[in-house]
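=== RUN LOG ===
request id: a7f3
mode: sequence -> structure
chains: 1
length: 199
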Amino acid sequence: MQEFDHIQSLWQSHSVEVKISSEEMLAQAKKEVSGIKTRSLLNIFGMIISFAALVALLILYPFTSWTTQAGLTIIIIAIAVSTIILYKDYKIISRNDFTQHPNEFLLQLKIYQLNKFSIYNKLYWFYAAAICLGFILYFYEMLNNLDLWFQIGITTFTVFWMALCATFLRKAYLKREKERLDLLIEKFERISSQFKEQV
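=== RESULT ===
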């Protein structure tokens, strides 16, 4: 047992320092920043497509109830506001060239991180409430044309999906994004310190 403890203490005391060059770290950071930009653009394009589809539905389909039109209008406004906020966040992260100005980009990355979590913690509830209210008003006319079992099924699924998005999916997404952004910020801090050491 003493030999095992001795081997374990030797193993724990043996540390291997991995030195990564600033060029390798910049290449990794470039790939991660590119991934963030791509995901942001895909989110923005998805929101624009949703916005256009709902506007087309509102204009082209002859709804008879004012509640359906009001519900769609609320959803469209919520999507438009969210798209504008996503675009402003995208501009923050794409504004600076991180290979030329790592310190400036690091500052912008921290602002981006704060904005992102502000959106998903505070403005998410505005968005979710607007979407829920919009769906309630929209379904008021639509559900009357369906059988009772379809009404119950659609209502149950909608409530379940909103609850799932508001709890598990949102929290998992926030945790994953926080870890990803924290790692990226740490890399840029190391890159900046390496540049300072070289100067």
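=== NOTES ===
Helices lie at 2-13, 22-60, 66-94, 102-144, 148-198.
Residues 14-18 have pLDDT under 50 and may be disordered.
=== END ===
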